[in-house]
Design brief:
The complex is a heterodimer of chains A (about 425) and B (about 400). Chain A has helices spanning about 5-20, 180-185, 310-330, 335-350, 360-385, 390-410; strands at about 25, 40, 50, 65-75, 80, 95-105, 110-115, 125-130, 145-150, 155-160, 165-170, 185-195, 200-210, 210-215, 220, 230-235, 245-250. By secondary structure, chain A is α+β, with helices and mostly antiparallel strands. In chain A, the strands form three sheets. In chain A, strands 1, 2, 3, 4, 5, 6, 7 and 8 form an eight-stranded antiparallel beta sheet that branches. By secondary structure, chain B is an alpha+beta fold. Chain B has helices spanning about 1-5, 10-15, 20-25, 40-50, 70, 75-85, 110-120, 360-370, and strands spanning about 145-150, 155, 160-170, 175-185, 190-200, 215-220, 230-235, 240-250, 260, 265-270, 275, 280-285, 290-295, 300-305, 315-320, 325-330, 340-350, 355-360, 380-385. In chain B, strands 1-10-4-7-11 form a five-stranded mixed beta sheet, with no helix packed on it. Chain B has a four-stranded antiparallel beta sheet with strand order 3-8-5-6, with no helix packed on it. A four-stranded antiparallel beta sheet of chain B has the order 12-19-14-17, with no helix packed on it. The chains are: A alpha+beta (about 425), B alpha+beta (about 400). At the A-B interface, helix 1, strand 3, strand 4, helix 4 and helix 5 of A face helix 2, helix 3, helix 6, helix 7 and strand 16 of B.
Chain lengths: ~425, ~400
């Protein structure tokens, strides 16, 4: 896709969008031969997505068809909706990936929505629409740190626009701001100092500040933390009688509005690390050393070239482990999956070298490799949730297994 | 994307203004939500057949078959969680492939393949050309020499779990030496595990300390029994009683459904005049390792975990006289299944060899398992060996 398109194009396109699709983002119907496959989803639980017809495992309702696709949008201008990475034509920010449902309608007849392109009764082609899916956008809107609540429905973003001010933005499963009535039911505070007793496994809050609803719909509190990095824990009960969740934020600097830097992928779009080149000869040439690594198609994961020698793989593994630790220490939990997944690919590459180990080395290495892969997936799973204890535990398991792998393979030159 | 690059901005602008933008962008291909490069039939199914199908098949003990993409895809999220937690496949031992019979650990690549498929849209893949999954026989070792049907046991609609202990006097025709014992569940959807022991006639079960009770088999679903090699056997004294403790737990489909089990025990006789498989018990507590010395030369055949305390993660090390200590066995919290882990290649222990059992600290064992399950604070291992001349 071209990096930039003229403003005229986008103005014209937005006019088309605005005139025909007030409720959804209009855009790119795809020819029947290139349509994404149909999936089945629950009308009441849209995060349930299955491949075959059936009933919802949560409520037993019959599943209904949906056609899912990935799209790229601006973190600030949600109207921008592209089919690949790039920059926002309005503000120049890097686009971020989201998951959308594709539907087609006819002008003036929003219902029914069709799942494929076609021709309307008046002979005009059906108009394509992209509708954001639940969990389709886990990208921070305000440059802060974005987490998903363990209830799998609420999302939140913490920001620290200046020393002493913490703000918390709450969203639903579509990353839309919570409605006013839901905001009123929220009870939240931010903790700046607490003590954990390992014996009783209880945490005692020393200093906490109530989070109060501000005029713009965010919660905010003035806190006693002044220096960076600022570690703050938001404890949120989204409605009376529901569990209280904790979200650990670490700000290494004052939060700035999002700039042209790619944000973490949406949870729904995370998936496979594709097979990739295993020899240096196949490494794509990067002419600009400052440019970000290319993104593997369909995954959002920066392309990683797996070295061929064990020594180099171990060195790369150490680097990934260090990056995981750096991100965890920085509280950037949502980005931890990237080095974690790169590390698991390195572990899989090492598995091909098991025959070079002694039986005792294999005894150490085989379970360590498997456990390292599992730990990487665990980091991916808990990174979204923002609970530092969970992330730290996953990091510890990851680091321990990376150490086991290194010890087992260190004997190979 | 290439098609998109052919469009000049002014062409696109005119198209948009004319309301025909969709026709142009239709030249591009949308990103598919299915991002897994691995498909069920090509990549996932072979792994599931090897590691999961003994339970996850029609009529199996697991609550869902996983033979086809239609059967497996609805369970993708559950599969993902179970794998990440290390609960499945239920093989809690960290050891290289080939050390134990019927080891059911996934390789790193196998684990990643399934997780990628489960997280990446569960693509079905091409219609398989191979035939249906092979049928699983009732008795993996063949027809037993003696079958003993247990008395029926029911779990009523309101009961979800239970256990029963049945004593069966062995008939005079029972083999004096056994090479294997197996159990064929009558109601696989509720038989969780079983411990099969033999009581010598002069003792009672309460008198186990006298050595009158011998564990013959630790049955868990989906794991075929291992037959002792020629020349080794379990001794069954004349007049002995077979004691079978069966643990029941219904799978979720049978909640509020009454089920009745009538399992059958199969005994396989050993030929010739075998040497008896003996057992050395090693107990350890958290922070309190236990060391036992081997008196004479012995061939270590298997390590068993305690049927009554299977949750603890434990490590077992062996130190030959004057030699370094080496870990033989390390288990994570066991998920409620006691097992006998049969060494594929028995290990000869020289006289004076010491074996040490240690309960793994919570952090180690749970970190390895990625588990949040219950802790174990004590472990009891049995070393199954044959004295060597």
């Amino acid at each position: 896709m071209p990096a930039r398109t003229s403003g005229l194009v986008w103005v014209a396109w937005l006019l088309v969008v605005a005139s025909s699709a007030p409720a959804a983002q209009r855009g790119t119907p795809t020819p029947a031969t290139a349509l994404p496959p149909l999936s089945m989803t629950c009308p009441m639980h849209p995060d349930v997505v299955e491949r075959a017809p059936g009933t919802c495992p949560l409520c037993r309702m019959n599943l209904v068809p949906v056609r899912l696709a990935a799209a790229w949008t601006c973190p600030v201008h949600a109207v921008v909706n592209e089919d690949g990475p790039g920059t926002c034509p309005i503000c120049g920010r890097a686009l971020v990936p989201v998951t959308v449902a594709l539907t087609w309608t006819c002008r003036g007849e929003p219902n029914p929505e069709h799942l494929e392109p076609g021709v309307c009764a008046d002979g005009s082609p059906r108009i394509g629409a992209r509708t954001l899916r639940p969990h389709g956008n886990h990208n921070p809107r305000f440059g802060g740190q974005f987490f998903m609540a363990p209830d799998n429905w609420h999302h939140l973003e913490g920001t620290y626009p200046r020393a002493g001010l913490f703000r918390l933005h709450l969203f639903d499963d579509f990353a839309r701001p919570l409605s006013a009535d839901k905001l009123k039911a929220v009870q939240a505070r931010v903790v700046t100092l607490e003590r954990f007793d390992a014996a009783s496994r209880r945490t005692t809050e020393i200093t906490a500040f109530p989070l109060r609803l501000a005029a713009d719909g965010a919660f905010e509190a003035r806190v006693d933390t002044a220096a960076f990095p600022a570690a703050l824990t938001a404890k949120v009960r989204f409605a009376p009688g529901t569990p209280e969740y904790r979200f650990d934020f670490t700000f290494t600097a004052a939060t700035a509005p999002p700039g042209p830097v790619a944000a973490p992928r949406p949870r729904a779009a995370r998936a496979a690390t594709p097979r990739r080149a295993t020899t240096a000869a196949r490494e794509p040439r990067r002419t600009d050393p400052e440019a970000p690594a290319p993104i593997a198609a369909g995954t959002g994961l920066p392309v990683q070239l797996v070295p061929t020698s064990v020594r180099d793989i171990l060195a790369a593994l150490r680097a990934r482990e260090a990056e995981v630790s750096r991100l965890v220490d920085a509280g950037d939990f949502g980005a931890v999956w990237v080095p974690a997944f790169q590390a698991k690919d390195l572990a899989i590459a090492l598995e091909a070298q098991l025959d070079r180990l002694t039986p005792e080395g294999r005894r150490l290495a085989e379970p360590a490799l498997q456990a390292l892969v599992r730990a990487a997936w665990q980091l991916d799973a808990v990174g979204d949730l923002g609970d530092r204890q969970q992330v730290e535990a996953a990091r510890a398991a990851f680091a321990a297994r990376a150490g086991d792998v290194e010890r087992a393979f260190a004997v190979i030159p | 994307m290439k098609g998109r690059q052919l469009l000049r901005p002014w062409v696109v602008a005119l198209a948009c203004a004319a309301g025909v933008w969709p026709r142009f962008v239709a030249l591009t291909e949308a990103h598919k939500p299915i991002t897994s490069p691995y498909t069920f039939t090509e990549h996932v199914q072979p792994i599931l057949r090897e590691h999961c199908r003994s339970c996850h098949r029609d009529g199996g003990v697991a609550p869902m078959p996983l033979d086809t993409p239609e059967q497996a895809a609805p369970w993708a999220e559950s599969i993902r969680l179970e794998l990440i937690a290390g609960h499945m496949p239920p093989w809690p031992v960290e050891a290289p492939r080939g050390r134990f019979h019927h080891a059911n650990a996934l390789t790193a690549r196998e684990l990643d393949t399934i997780l990628t498929w489960a997280s990446g849209g569960t693509p079905a893949g091409p219609v398989p050309t191979a035939g249906p999954a092979p049928a699983t026989g009732d008795w993996p070792l063949g027809t037993p020499d003696l079958e003993l049907a247990l008395a029926p046991h029911s779990l009523g609609a309101g009961a979800q779990a239970g256990q029963v202990e049945l004593a069966i006097p062995l008939p005079a025709s029972a083999p004096r030496w056994l090479r294997a014992v197996d159990l064929k569940p009558g109601a696989p959807e509720m038989v969780r595990s079983a411990t099969i022991t033999v009581d010598a006639p002069a003792t009672t079960r309460r008198g186990a300390a006298t050595g009158g009770t011998r564990v013959l088999g630790l049955w868990v679903p989906g794991e075929p029994p291992v037959a002792l090699p020629h020349g080794v056997g379990f001794e069954v004294p004349p007049g002995a009683t077979l004691v079978v403790r069966v643990r029941y737990r219904k799978t979720w489909q049978y909640e509020q459904v009454s089920l009745t089990d009538r399992s059958v025990i199969g005994l396989y006789g050993a030929t010739g005049a075998p040497r008896a498989l003996q057992s050395l018990q090693v107990d350890a507590g958290l922070g309190v390792p236990s060391t036992q010395a081997v008196d004479g030369r012995a061939r270590l055949m298997a390590v068993s975990t305690d049927p009554e305390a299977p949750e603890a993660g434990v490590s077992l090390t062996v130190r030959p006289p004057g030699g370094p200590e080496a870990e033989l066995f390390a288990s994570r919290p066991g998920g409620g299944w006691a097992r006998r882990y049969w060494l594929a290649e028995p290990i000869v222990l020289e006289p004076g060899t010491t074996v040490t059992a240690r309960v793994r600290p919570r952090s180690d064992a749970k970190a390895a398992a990625g588990s949040s399950g219950p802790d174990g604070s004590a472990a009891r291992l049995s070393l199954e060996f044959v004295p060597e001349p």
